[in-house]
Every structure is written in structure tokens, then in C-alpha cells.
User: Fold this.
Amino acid sequence: MLRYKDIDTQLIHAGEPDPPIDGAVAMPIFQTAMFHTAGDADYHDIRYIRLSNTPNHRVLHDKLAALEGAEAALVTASGMAAISTALLAVLHPGDHLLAQNCLYGGTYSLVAEDLAALGIAVDFIDATAPESWEPLLRENTRVIYVETISNPLVEVPDLDAVVAFAREHGLVSMVDSTFASPVNYRPPEAGFDLSLHSCTKYLNGHSDIVAGAVTGRGELIERVRHKLNHLGGALDPHACFLLHRGIKTLGVRMHRHNENAMRIARFLEAQPRVVRVNYPGLESNVHYARARKFLDGFGGMLSFEVEGGETAAQGVLDRVRIPLIAPSLGGVESLLTRPVTTSHRGMPREAREAVGITDGLIRMSVGIESAGELIDDLEQALAEPR
Assistant:
């Protein structure tokens, strides 16, 4: 298989069938639930959609592994399917994990409630303070879990320290790298055991499917695959096709997301009614040095607060004209949401407030529209109501 030097070339050509299937330039959709058996030696090798081994699955697995510098990859029916299945593949009743204290709300609820109900304990850590992690270790600690860029405060952990800490103490290092995408950060290249993505977001990029992915060490991916085969969170072939097509434009989209978000963050930082801007590309941001060290780009996500709290924040959402008011992120269109009403609604108020997710926080997924028009729109939305 050819190896490509640049990720923009990998996005198009890595992992593609060689030779192309019946000469097809675009990957065909194999809309069949099952395939002829051929003396398969193991249950997990039977050709069947639920076992994630159709041609549409395999081309995605090869491409994602190549993009992240991983030994293997696996796609799933959603980002949460990737996260939950990966955690359940490496954790068992009686185990303990360390998890970043500012996480996507669904992940927080999973580890704080669902895993707890299975007898798996969690301690939440400040992912920027490695010196505080060791006192929380237990004999049964198995995993350390962080986000490359956190949701919704866009914090950047000490990623190298996470990898080193996991190796020193025999833990599985896991990172949700959805906000960064492989264009801006490739966790397996940096030493992470497992990298997780909600492919609903940047990897697909068009807000029309729900999907997830896990990449990393081959032995661990095999364990995750076997767990997924039993839990049933497989991606269907048509969604595989759409994700495969979306990935090919990730490079051009992500470069524009990076550029637009940087311009908008600088604009917001200069606005008198904006009291806080969370974006790691700003020199004033406490995560800037780590972001410069670890990331190839600062991403398309930011969050900010306006003077006046919840009422003022809702007023901004009511007045914008271009961004859509909707959950999720990573598509070509800009989206605004208040995390307390969407992504972090299920997180207890005291836990939200402890990490800085306030009622007045606005999260912006910056799209690839004209940055100038987005700034003009935000300017009128931030103006004092008459």
C-alpha cells in the first residue's frame, strides 16, 4: 500500500481499495446485510453488517488508521457508541478510572452514572495539573480519559503528561479527539492507546449522519470490536459511504474552520459586552502554550460569555441571523447553543458550575461561511438592545 506524506493527500487516497472495486472511482455502497460464508474460523469473522466487516466498513477502518497513525480503527453507530464500547472493553466491575473534570455531558453522565451502576468507580481530575493525578490512583485504576480540546470550555490538557502517566502506571490512555480532528492532532502518533471520535462532527462535516470511530493499538481495537459485535452499535453501509465521502474534504474544511474561529475569537475578545472568550488560539488564553505545543491548528470551536448572564446570552441567540441555534457541531454551517440547555443538560448544576459551565455560556461551532459576514452578524447581535 502506498504511504502518503501529507494528511491532505491521505484524506483522499489512504485506505482506498487497490485496485478500485470494478474500476469505481467512488466507493460503492454495499447495501447487503450478509455475505456468503467461506469457512470462517471465528464468529467475529463472519461477513455481516453488525460485525462491521463489509467493504464499506473496511475502507473506513483502513483510512482512519492511516490518518491517525494507528495500528487499527473501527467505526461505530455514534460517538457515544464509540466511547461507551471502548470503555466497556477495558473496564470491568470493580475497576476504577480517572476522567477529565470537564467533558462532553453525555460522557460525564456515562462515567458518573452508568458505569457507576456497573460497579466501576471514577475520580475526576484537572487534566492540566499532572501533579494532582497520582494521589487519586488506586490499585484497581485501569484507565485515564481526557479530551484533546474539551467540550464546551475548549481547554487543552497536558496531553504528553497523560501518555507518560498512563505508561508509568500501566493504564490505558484514552482521548476523545472530536474537536481537534486528525488534521489538528493525531493521538496514536502521540502515544495514546485509544483515540475516539464522534464522526457526526468534523470527520463527516455535513450534519447528515451520526457515527463514531475508535483508533489505536491493534490488540485494544480487537477487544473493542468484539464488544461492539455483542452490543450491536454498528454503522450501516449507507452511513459508511457518507462518512467516507465526507472525510475526503476534511482538510479543506478544517483549515477554514481553524481560520474562521481564530478571526471570530479575536473579534469577540475585543467586544466590551463579552466578559470571557474560551479559545486556545488566543495568546491571552491559559491553554495557549499547550495548544501551540500539541496542536497543528486550534480548531473551529469556541465559547464565550456576555455581560448579563443567561438573559443576555439568550438575547444573542435570539438576534443572530446566520448561525443556526442547534446542538452538535463540526458541520459546514455555524451553530450556536447554550450548553446548559443541550450538550450538558444532564450534568448536575453543581458539577457544571464547578468547572465553569455557566447558564450564560454560549458555545459556537464556527462554520466555513464568510468570516466577515459572521463577525458582522455577531456584532449586531451583541449590540445593546434598544
Observations:
- The chain is about 40% helix and 15% strand.
